[in-house]
Amino acid sequence: MGLSTHVLDTMHGTPAGGMKVALYTTTRDNSASVQALLVKSFVLDDDGRNPDGLLYDSATLQAGTYRLVFDVADYFRSRSVALPEPPFLDQVTLDFGVADTRQHYHVPLLVSPWSYSTYRGS
């Protein structure tokens, strides 16, 4: 239980080890503008996961809204992929909600320099 993420590099067919990721909590103010508060930033391990394990465990995960920001262009540049300037995808931002903290929320990202896909995993 808790919150986790995993990134797969679909261009190379490998986990996206070395990609920088940031996790935020988000809230909306009276003008419907989203405010984001950085919780943690980390670099994915060789398996494309947070080296510290869960982003939140079941005891600390709260119902609410969150944002994950993945530094996609920097990652692909580090893999010697020639990207245009500006790159088609620079950072991928995923905003999502957690409704039931008794369940596990896994947020995987499948990414290339030109596309990405996500879903709620298990």
Question: Can you tell me about this structure?
Answer:
Helices cover 6% and strands 48% of the residues. With 122 residues, it is mainly beta. The protein has a single domain (2-118), classed as Sandwich (Immunoglobulin-like). Strands 1, 2, 5, 8 and 9 form a five-stranded mixed β-sheet that branches. It has a four-stranded antiparallel β-sheet with strand order 4-3-6-7. The protein is globular and about 40 Å long. The protein starts with a strand and ends with a strand. The mean pLDDT is 96.
CATH superfamily, please?
Transthyretin/hydroxyisourate hydrolase domain
Question: Could you say which structural class the secondary elements and strand pairing correspond to?
Answer: mainly beta
Tally of individual helices: 1
Per the CATH scheme, the topology name is Immunoglobulin-like
| CATH top level assignment | Mainly Beta
Order of helices and strands: EEEEEEHEEE
Radius of gyration based on Cα positions: 15 Å
Short description:
The protein is mainly β and 122 residues long. Helices cover 6% and strands 48% of the residues. The strands form two sheets. Strands 1, 2, 5, 8 and 9 form a five-stranded mixed beta sheet that branches. It has a four-stranded antiparallel beta sheet with strand order 4-3-6-7.
Task: Outline the fold blueprint.
Elements: E1 2-9, E2 14-15, E3 20-28, E4 34-43, E5 56-57, E6 64-71, H1 72-78, E7 91-98, E8 104-111, E9 116-118
Parallel strand pairs: 1-8
Antiparallel strand pairs: 1-2, 1-5, 3-4, 3-6, 6-7, 8-9
